[in-house]
Design goal:
The chain has about 250 residues and is mostly beta strands. The protein is built from two helices and 13 strands, in the order H-E-E-E-E-E-E-E-E-E-E-E-E-E-H. The strands form two sheets. Strands 1-6-7-8-9-10-11-12-13 form a nine-stranded antiparallel sheet. Strands 2-3-4-5 form a four-stranded antiparallel sheet, with no helix packed on it. A hairpin with a 5-residue loop joins strand 3 and strand 4. The two termini are about 20 Å apart.
Length: about 250
């Protein structure tokens, strides 16, 4: 029997759904967050003065967000993020080892019954190069059919020696769940992201008994790290859809 499709969601509703899923990163331990569009000051290099980061949305000729980085004694830096629905971004300052990094929120996958928010982590490496060092899922909702729906939420916070990433996945029956042959599922895990000032963020090896969604998230992180192996400041050319990052709530994972 063909699945029962849900009503089509407009881009505005999808954007709102993604925002509602965000787990309050401004309140995360160790984070200094600001409302969307507010500049932040971050110590991106050890023993260096804080730098100002400021976002600037652009809708024409394409939707994107420019993040300007004012560097003392060096040329200004620029990070470019695609913006599926337009609008500005929220910048969050996070301590990471002997420095700070800044997380910018970005739209991920979108479509009928699906919405996602990503956290793009920005730093300056030991060679003094501005770069994106990681892209993590913050909130993902998948309800493409009325049979089941899935939500994957995550929070980032400070932890000695790295960043704590706590994830919570849940799949449950939808409005016509009597047609669903699967089983409700809950999966929770925590991990530490580390960075030594070179290349992209890394995480420890998966523990024995890791669930399918955690394994999928780890595999996506490895693929993203491959795209960020060389310094990247413009995310528009990256084929993120091929990394598995947009597919973490797929029914085949749980």
């Amino acid at each position: 029997m063909a699945p029962c499709r849900m009503a089509v969601m407009t881009p505005r509703r999808l954007a709102l759904a993604g925002l509602l899923l965000l787990p309050g990163l401004a309140r995360a331990a160790g984070a200094a967050a600001a409302p969307a569009g507010t500049p932040v000051m971050a110590r991106l290099l050890p023993d260096a003065p804080p730098m100002q980061l400021r976002s600037q949305p652009q809708d024409d000729p394409e939707r994107l967000v420019r993040i300007h980085v004012q560097r003392s004694g060096a040329a200004p830096g620029l990070v470019l993020l695609p913006s599926r629905y337009g609008g500005d971004t929220r910048l969050t300052v996070l301590p990471l080892g002997d420095r700070q990094v800044v997380m910018a929120e970005m739209d991920g996958v979108g479509g009928t019954g699906i919405s996602q928010r990503l956290g793009v982590l920005i730093g300056i490496d030991r060679e003094g190069q501005l770069r994106v060092i990681g892209i993590e899922n913050l909130a993902l909702q998948e309800a493409g059919t009325c049979e089941s729906e899935a939500v994957l939420r995550a929070t980032l916070s400070a932890r000695p020696g790295g960043l704590a990433l706590a994830s919570d996945f849940q799949r449950r029956r939808g409005p016509c769940g009597f047609r669903w042959r699967g089983q409700p599922r809950r999966e929770r895990w925590s991990e530490t992201l580390v960075w030594d000032g070179a290349g992209p963020l890394a995480a420890a090896a998966l523990p024995a008994g890791a669930g399918p969604v955690q394994r999928a998230a780890a595999a996506a992180r490895r693929q993203v790290a491959g795209l960020l192996a060389r310094p990247v400041t413009d995310l528009r050319p990256l084929a993120l859809e091929r990394t598995g990052l947009f597919d973490l709530a797929s029914p085949r994972h749980g």
